[in-house]
């Protein structure tokens, strides 16, 4: 399978899965559960462009221009990259007949990125250790990435259905 073919599949799968994850986040916020502010992701990325990788507390760092838009763009780009990982691991056969387990396994595995990289870089520590409720925050991240995995499965199923109809 060529890179172009893999990316052509990963793009709608990643966007669709990220949208599912965003709907999950919206539901959580409506239930009063705090979720990630993507402006902080954009702020971190803006500072990264100037060579600063780690912060004590990203919320206290100097705001950067267009940080919210930048954060949302990065959020969706990462969703596509994670979908690309799934496509590479699961292969072309999976794209033709998606199954839940590979998508959820990759989705759950991707939780290591925020727990071991983004949270420490933003000042929350490894596995949210510098937050008031590390275990709760880790479980919330795990649930969100599980939902992302389900979203990859659903998006791949829609893509396979659309392609078989053509």
Automatic annotation (TrEMBL):
> This protein is called what?
Membrane protein
Q: Which domain of life is it from?
A: Bacteria
Q: Which organism is it from?
A: Pseudomonas inefficax
**Membrane spanning residue stretches:** 6-28, 68-89, 95-117, 138-160
> Which lineage?
Bacteria, Pseudomonadati, Pseudomonadota, Gammaproteobacteria, Pseudomonadales
Fetch the Pfam families from UniProt: DUF2938
InterPro entries, per the entry = DUF2938
Keywords of the record, alphabetical order, are: Membrane, Transmembrane, Transmembrane helix
